């Protein structure tokens, strides 16, 4: 993954220009080593695709970023939309992945007051980073052949977890160590990715994507009531499906439902639609990418290319 641009703003950024002005590659910004993002993983982020120099569904991503920030009492710096635009411009526009990361700053620093960040004790506060990277070539290769998945039990009751806000269910923080461990476990078992499963066998989500499958003309996907991430692409597909003659049902499902499907796929803002051809060594859709995944991928690209 090549880093194309890094911009940052906020009093907690080491190396920022006067007044926290954005800086970019090669003068890469750095975090205060006591920033709670590093010390305790207290930071939130969003990752989205940029098509033709335009971030796709940026407003929805910023709304979700704000919701995540509220969940961990993180005061967001202002000007995030402008920061994103500067990063995309610095990367040359085109087709890239844009990441927005907002950190909490050192403990006890930075409080929002009248819409501005105030550095209480002079040692920094919340900081924001916008990072543009290229799109891995592996995405199109995986889309062409389809993904092999394994089911991994989380040993938690998802409904209890969702009802416990201190567990941050559905909150997009940078604390992704368990997600990455799940993906490593999947690859160690000869698969491409994993699907997390609740203690009672409830299908949840992939570590970095939403889960879907089709039976007949109905698309099924796990309910947000299970404490999974409210995917932006997931919501987009819920809107697109009826225009393609497809019905969407959200609910509580098990592996038996998935294995009996006509086809399956994952969705995410960065990888878009990824067909699934195998789950726990059982072929899905005859072991080949399904037609609906291709149709939805095409519709998603058309939507991204349409005027804002």
Query: Low-confidence spans: pLDDT under 50, at least 5 residues?
Result: 12-27, 111-122
Structural class: alpha+beta
Overall radius of gyration: 20 Å
Helix and strand element order: EEEHEEHHEEEEHEHHEEEHEHEEEH
User: What portion of residues is helical?
Assistant: 25-40%
**pLDDT averaged over residues:** 89
Termini separation (Å)? 28 Å
Q: How many strands, what sense, and barrel or not for the largest sheet?
A: 8 strands, mixed
The backbone outline, from C-alpha atoms, is globular
The number of helical elements comes to 9
Strand content: 25-35%
Strand tally: 17
Question: How are the secondary structure elements laid out?
Answer:
Blueprint: E1 3-9, E2 13-14, E3 30-31, H1 36-40, E4 43-51, E5 54-55, H2 58-71, H3 80-90, E6 96-103, E7 111-113, E8 116-118, E9 127-133, H4 138-145, E10 147-153, H5 158-162, H6 177-188, E11 193-197, E12 210-215, E13 218-222, H7 232-240, E14 247-251, H8 255-259, E15 263-268, E16 272-279, E17 282-283, H9 291-305
Parallel strand pairs: 10-11, 10-16, 13-14
Antiparallel strand pairs: 1-9, 2-3, 4-5, 4-6, 6-9, 7-8, 12-13, 12-15, 15-16, 16-17
């Amino acid at each position: 993954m090549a880093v194309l641009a890094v911009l940052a703003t906020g009093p907690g950024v080491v190396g920022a220009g006067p007044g926290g002005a954005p800086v970019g590659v090669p003068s890469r910004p750095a975090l205060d080593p006591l920033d709670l993002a590093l010390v305790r993983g207290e930071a939130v982020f969003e990752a989205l695709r940029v098509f033709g120099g335009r971030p796709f569904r940026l407003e929805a991503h910023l709304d979700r970023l704000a919701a995540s920030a509220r969940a961990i009492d993180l005061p967001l710096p202002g000007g995030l939309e402008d920061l994103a635009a500067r990063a995309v411009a610095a990367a040359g526009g085109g087709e890239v992945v844009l990441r927005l990361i907002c950190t909490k700053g050192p403990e006890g620093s930075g409080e929002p007051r009248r819409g501005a960040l105030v550095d209480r004790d002079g040692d920094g506060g919340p900081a924001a980073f916008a990072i543009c990277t290229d799109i891995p070539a592996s995405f199109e290769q995986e889309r062409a052949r389809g993904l092999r998945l394994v089911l991994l039990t989380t040993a938690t009751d998802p409904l209890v977890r969702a009802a416990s806000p201190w567990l941050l269910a559905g909150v997009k923080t940078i604390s992704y160590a368990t997600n990455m461990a799940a993906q490593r476990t999947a690859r160690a078992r000869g698969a491409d990715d994993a699907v997390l499963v609740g203690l009672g066998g409830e299908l949840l989500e992939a570590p970095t994507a939403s889960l879907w499958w089709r039976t007949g003309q109905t698309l099924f996907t796990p309910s947000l009531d299970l404490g999974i991430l409210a995917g932006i692409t997931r919501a987009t597909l819920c809107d697109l499906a009826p225009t393609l003659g497809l019905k969407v049902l959200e609910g509580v499902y098990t592996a038996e439902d998935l294995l009996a499907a006509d086809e399956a796929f994952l969705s995410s803002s960065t990888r878009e639609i990824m067909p699934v051809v195998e789950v726990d060594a059982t072929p899905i859709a005859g072991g080949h990418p399904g037609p609906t995944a291709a149709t939805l991928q095409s519709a998603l690209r058309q939507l991204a290319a349409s005027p804002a």
